[in-house]
Amino acid sequence: MSNLDVRLADWNQEGDKNKLHEIRYQVFVEEQKVPESKEWDQQDAQATHFLLSSDAEAIGCARIIIDGQAIKIGRVAILPQYRGIGAGYFLMNFIRDYAEEKGFASMILEAQTQAYHFYRQCGYDAQGTPFNDCDIPHILMQRDVKKSTQEQKPLFVAGEDQERYSMTNFIEKQGFLEMQLQQCRRLLYIQWGQLNESVLELPFLNVAIMRLIKRNPKTQVRIMVPEPDQNLDQHPLMVIRERLSSRIELKFIEKENNIDNLFLFDLHGYFSLKGHEGWTNFCDRSRVKTQIEEFDRMWQKARVPHELRRLYL
Fold first, then answer.
1. Which residue in 13, 28, 250, 251 is deepest, having the highest Cβ count within 10 Å?
2. Which domain covers residue 95, as residue numbers?
């Protein structure tokens, strides 16, 4: 790991402000398409800012806003080329130590759902369900400054949270799907009767599947879709299948089978859509066992596209 260091930064000092501005602009405005009018606000002048460096090069940042005995953490950003080396954990641990030193009782943040598992590992518990902020699903998370990870609640935790959650809008669907995919480890089955479903056409799905396979190259990923009426080469699921052809299996099922729109995660979680409504559960082993058995039965009936046979392991 590079030599990481965190220090307090002064928004009113030009050098610090430029570094903070550059990192946040690259991550939020350029990468995540957050409007500049939303990124910069009046709270920057009053906030306490943190600047993360690697070998003296600024690579990440965050800010906190004090609210009584709590601090609200925001604008947490790590430059893309420095992700995956523990920089985010280093920054969050520094902020926790700072909060404890200053005598604060709790820390809250509005996490993007694609980062739910990261903040979970930092000791934060989810509060409520996904909500929209700049067209990105977010979820409120909180932790006591002195709380250990052993005291965490199981909300949205794979293999633990047995609650069934309904989803009525696109942000909730994307948010819950992101949280499920982050925690998947060994098995991902996707069967989808409507390939034009907007959830399947978002770039985040490709990124999440690629991260899953990178975490565990032995993960079994199977995709089953109806026989297409048109060329699907540019569909996100087909793009990811082509890029990782040795890791992802694809089969076509005859249309008259009317398959459900369903994701299955390991041996306990599911994500299902029907029309405009959807449901997800992070721990329903009995139901998922039945669904996996049904998937396997239909998988045997489905066909490997002739043009892809040679690509299979």
1. 250
2. 4-151
